[in-house]
What does this fold into?
Amino acid sequence: MPGRNHLYVPGPTNIPDAILSAMHVPSEDHRAPDFPTLVKPILENLKKVFRTEAGQTFIFPATGTAGWEIALTNTLSPGDKVLSYRFGQFSHLWIDLAKRLGLDVEYEEVPWGQGVPLDRLEARLKADTDHEIKAVLICHNETATGVTSDLPGVRRALDAAGHPAMFFVDGVSSIASLDFRLDEWGIDISLAGSQKGFMLPAGLALLAFSPKALEARKTAQCRRAFLDIQDHIVSNADGYFPYTPSIPLLHGLRKALELLLEEGLENVYARHARLGEGVRRAVAAWGLKTCAQEPKWHSNSVTAIVVPEGFDARDVIHVAYHRYNLSLGAGLSEVAGKVFRIGHLGDLNELSLASAIVGAELALLDVGVPLTPGSGIAAAGAYWRETAPAITPRG
It folds into this structure.
């Protein structure tokens, strides 16, 4: 098909040319004397993106799924109780993984389209007077439903209950895109994947551990080998890894971190918020609804769009891909066929995101969804024009 594929799934995301170029390197000796000059600045800049000064960052040749396991096995013991909430496919999968590791998992079912119920979380923590709950597992941005939970609110609930449980966060589709502050919000472990806001191919699990989480590893009895952070602690101190790293991905990560920090994290957050709101304006103009049930749950990195009764979102995705060379995210598990998703994170601006809105609108029209042609991009464009940064006059 002529033209490039327009990739608007919520990960993997588009890779900037500067990062592609940075990854185009010959093979290197990962034991070379000068290899630490590559590794040490990456680990330090990664701390800036996780917003931690006291914590320690880790890079594993893996994915976000491995990040879940790294967080749990390095800090907990078989039979330890953890508390979580199931409100989407990825919160579900983390819960399932924790069970398979032999942890005592307590979780609450929450309607898909909502996030963490802070009042019930606080009440449960206050009821746990013996402090049996050792960790709270929170999916910050539920990619399947386009729902973002309130992490500062989770910290307030823990503090209000006076509960010592560790606070673990899946930030795979939020970190490097949405506001995230490990130290300020009292998060003990956060994890991300390279293929989302970091604008890289999949293949790196990126984590940050607080001092409390690092201390917990000393008594953790879950079995671990390849995913043991202790081996990284020893090797990273000198700028190396305990086993062969993906050197091209490391070069790409160095450039990605440079791009994020050059733009400024506050500007990155604001850009994603503005672009995400444009997509939501388009959805409203189409007369459709988001899976996120209230504005407080809206995600600025992905929007899950509910198709009307009698339509199948898989048809929209099929037409978008085969007729317009546009990749949209599919509905997963409980929302399969009910929603399609537009990912709006990573390397994008108004005009690149406009192609996703226009293509999705064309596909919706093609499958018979009643809407006014041009309404979506008109609404998004009007909002983006109203909120566009000022331009210095010519002359």
Summary: The longest strand covers residues 133-139. The radius of gyration is 21 Å.
